[in-house]
Amino acid sequence: MSDFMQKQIDASERLFNMMLDDHKQRFEKIAAVYALSESLQKKLNERDAEIARLRQQLRIYETLDFM
């Protein structure tokens, strides 16, 4: 009976280590995706600010053309 229990404990430890490795790999990938997403969001916000600035300039030029 002792041999059976030891095999079960060993199998449980192997499964635990496999699950831990899987978790670490997934976490690293999620962290990389998050960093990429954060960078993309920053670039999109900069783009939106530039578009707003250019639209404001365009309104000024259009107003000056009507005068």
Order of helices and strands: H
Helix count equals 1
Q: Please report the total strand number as a whole number.
A: 0
Mean of residue pLDDT values: 93
The proportion of residues in beta strands is: under 5%
Structural description of this entry:
This protein is mainly alpha-helical and 67 residues long. It has 1 helix and no strands. The N and C termini lie far apart (98 Å).
Brief description of this entry?
With 67 residues, the protein is mostly helical. The protein is built from one helix and no strands.
Structure characteristics:
67 residues, mainly alpha, 97% helix, rod-shaped
What's the helix and strand layout?
Elements: H1 2-66
